[in-house]
Design goal:
Blueprint lengths: L2 H12 L5 E8 L2 E9 L15 E2 L4 H14 L20 E6 L5 E5 L6 H6 L11 H10 L29 H13 L3 H13 L10 H4 L6 E3 L5 E3 L18 E2 L1 H12 L3 E2 L2 E2 L3 H7 L31 E2 L4 E3 L11 E6 L3 E6 L4 E6 L8 H17 L1
Helix pairs in contact: 1-10, 2-5
Length: about 375
Amino acid sequence: MYSRFESALDAAVEGGRVAGAVALVADRDGVIYETAAGLRKVGDAAAMDPATVFWLASMTKAVASVAALREVEQGRLSLDGDLSGLLPEFAGLQVLEGFEADGAPRLRPVRRAPTLRQLLTHTSGFGYGFLHGELARWREASGTPDPMAGLRAGHVQPLLFEPGEQWAYGIGIDWAGLAVEAASGQRLDAYLTEHVFGPLGMADTGFLPTAEQAARQASPHARGEDGKLMPIPFALPSAPEVWSGGGGLFGTARDYARFTRMLLNGGTLDGARVLNPETIDQLSQVQTGPLRAGAFQGALAMSLDFDLFPEQHTGWGLTGLINPEPSADGRGAGSLAWAGIFNTYYWVDRAAGLSGMLMAQQTPFGDPDVLGLLKALERDAYRLA
């Protein structure tokens, strides 16, 4: 049925270009295809299978964005209101303009703090140090910890530009998660369990895998000097001050398919409503106006240059990337998509009622072999739809 994709997947695994992967395609009614190949960890016997747990990384962003939009529906958050009452740090944000000759950062007060809409669409000015060298330089000069350390102080960083003026991928949705906590009175992990994971039956998704889930977890991999993939150590803080709404979740492809099916079904799944249909329509609309969104140049060893649709003027909705034109591989105009830094990817085509995902665990992000498999999966999914 998906013979072209499976042949490509098997060849990538056998050739050592991909350690292992799980693929899944779902429609509004359920999973219509899933397969797995390769190993959870090179050198171990455990094979990839649909129960494998992955670090979802930035696939977390769509989930945390849905939580924020639910708080907007409840009237406790506003997309365009002042957040400084909920997030006191926003009253003193600064813009990084450059560096003095002695290396000291040159900063000035921001004219207007970012709104929730800007946090969700990556137009807030917040960036990532691994993509923006000036932030890494500022962090070194100031001695501020990296956000990955899980400390709230690590998230207090200067903006790259005035909110709304540009698009830059960054930690804005981590701050959106903190806004959800402040508005709801719940920690983000408890909020998502009660209002998203529980209602959707996503029992294998969370910020801290149980011992049983950890036993099913895939290891991240990187290439050694010989070019072969090898496991690398990786762990997130087990008791962070800030649960990362931008990248902290672990989960399975099957669980994430329940989340994408909720989006396909207008905010509901199996009788459980997470968002109203009007909100689903709104989150599926481009929010970034003339700014092109969703592409960036990689830095350090974590990411290659990344642009899923170089031929299109892509935009960002309230949960992810939106392609304004049909893709060459099948998905329709207006589809939602994004990814995680260890090469996990998904798309949601609401018009066609189809979603898909491909999950691997290897660096750097934007691996051309994994992206090639994603395209092959998409082509087979639409050919057979």
